[in-house]
Amino acid sequence: MSANANSDYRLDIDGLRALAVLPVLLYHAGVPGFSGGFIGVDIFFVISGFLITGIIAREIDAGGFSILTFYERRARRILPALLAMIAFVLVGASWLFLPSDFEKVGPSALAAIFFLANVWLFTETGYFQATAETTPLLHTWSLGVEEQFYIGVPVLLILVARLAPGWRLKSVIALTVISFGWAVLKQADTDGFAFYLLPTRAWELFAGSLLALGAVPAIRNRWLAEAICAVALAAIVWATASYDYNTVFPGTAALAPVLAAAALIHCAPGTWTGRLLSLKGPVWIGLISYSLYLSHWPLIVFWQYGFDGEQTASHSTGLIAASIAIAWASWRWIEQPFRSKARFPTQRVWRWGAGGMGIATAAALALVMQGGWDSRFDERTLKFARAAGDFSPARALCTVTRVSEFSDECTLGADASPSAIVWGDSHGVEIAWVLGEQYAQRGQSVGQRTRGSCPPALGYDPAKDPDCAVFNRNVMAEIAAAPSIEKVYLAGYWVSDNYREARIDNHIGRTLDELLALGKEVVLIGPIPSQRQSVPRLLALEGAGVPTRSASGFAEATAWFTQNYPAWKAKGAQIIEPLDHLSRDGRTIIVAGDTPLYYDSHHLSLAGARFLLGHHAAGQLAGELPCNARAEAGDRRNGTICSDRSQGPDGPSAIAGYRGSRP
């Protein structure tokens, strides 16, 4: 009842490919119940490791393995549909993408062409990383992992066959254990290494390799095989439905889909699960799965980019149907012809493959040289679009991944010890820069202590970032040890569902108690109204009249947090309520004149931070808008600080005494 590497074509493996690609498609299309659909990639890795390692091992054993023949087969399989998809992305992005998003298309295309997308994405991690919604070639990272694996594995198996034939299985087992151990060690890191790079992903492909090399004994008892397959299928369904963005992945969490895929490969033939996977529907999806994987993500990215990021059920259905139709066409007219040796003999495959890669490389380089290609848009559109770059010059340096030893360049303002600190997640970054501008005018400075997705909340210890709690303890210790720090500003992405589910407001109460016990003045900056899509993009594509989020709706969504204001005020904290200043006539506002107030969908730009803080002097907030949001929201948040006064300029555009360098 078990499979081996000598098996002929197996319908159930194509069915398993369907079980891999459909969760990915439905997850990306936003279909409820598929929050863990990203595990489909891990299933693909196991299938690939089983099939390709089996081919290599059989040919080496028969004395007929050829590196050139191996890569010819890979070229026939991978290049035609990939290059067609890259061409589609280059054309689509040239037509649709704004300059700041367009600049990343050429480099990402080059990385995809040479199967280095995973490495490129790893180098882009951080607060300037390519975000999913503007990276139509994001999904090619998995192709990079596979092809890098298939550079090393043939060489490994050839060397072992020549030098130590009895060590083939042992060497693969050893590499599997090392890779898995590395993945577990790196799984909680936020640098992207564990997710994108081969060393921590190789074990998933090696899991299939071990099956191909006969590491697992055959399961000859039918009912045991049936049970194993049923449990494996249930594990895939469970992981697809229960995993989500907050799952620490890969690493130990990847064991469920990887082992389940391996179990189905090994045990499915002759079982009810095997027959289910061998039905015409799953097999057909499996046949087009490669083209479906390639085509669906660029289609979704372009749709969301051009249609405000809104994705209703009908939109999702249309995108799924369009992805399947395009995938079938790609399989029928691109994949299939190139796999035919009659139509494309070996020399022709090499010529077409090299020529296609050369043309794609030239096109990508041309786009790189164009930069943002500003000439495609009028000046007003460009002005809105440029706001995507209106963030703090200290963002990259001072939105830290380290937990201590903060750089002196994260002291903003005059050349003096900080008299205040901004402590928060990434929502504190632009606030810190603008406060630094204001404090510089008084000969003072502000310390910036910010860590992405890590709110200033003692006791908060997220599984995906165990260093967050350490970071917060170190910041508190620094504040306690510095008598010169008189004021502490707390800022966070309080709209976050993760924070709400973790009841971050309880941790904020503890943080306030400790700060106030130290005699510090504490200013809490409330939730920044988030928008459905990048604000510079919305304004550039639709103009200043674009509909924005309801002020009352936002007030209701954040009431779990703001309902604590009276208690926090009673402790002695001050509250700056952004909604009171970033709303008008029942709607949140995203632009002042022709100046966007955000640089993405929920981070204030420097202009927005200046607009919110106004002229902050002597601990008083001077806003530019009337305090009307509370009344419009039904005054559900007693105790908010609100001012109808309007004072002076927004502050200087440059910060005196900044010891870093502007990009």
Give a verbal description of the structure.
By secondary structure, this protein is mainly alpha-helical. The protein contains 29 helices and ten strands. Strands 1-3-2-4-5-6 form a six-stranded mixed sheet. The protein has a two-stranded antiparallel sheet with strand order 7-8. A hairpin with a 2-residue loop joins strand 7 (583-584) and strand 8. Helix 15 (289-306) crosses helix 16. The longest helix is centred in the first third of the chain and has 30 residues, at 67-96. It is globular, with a radius of gyration of 28 Å. It starts with 10 loop residues before the first helix and ends in a 31-residue tail after the last helix. The model is unreliable at 1-7, 126-130, 615-619 and 621-663 (pLDDT under 50).
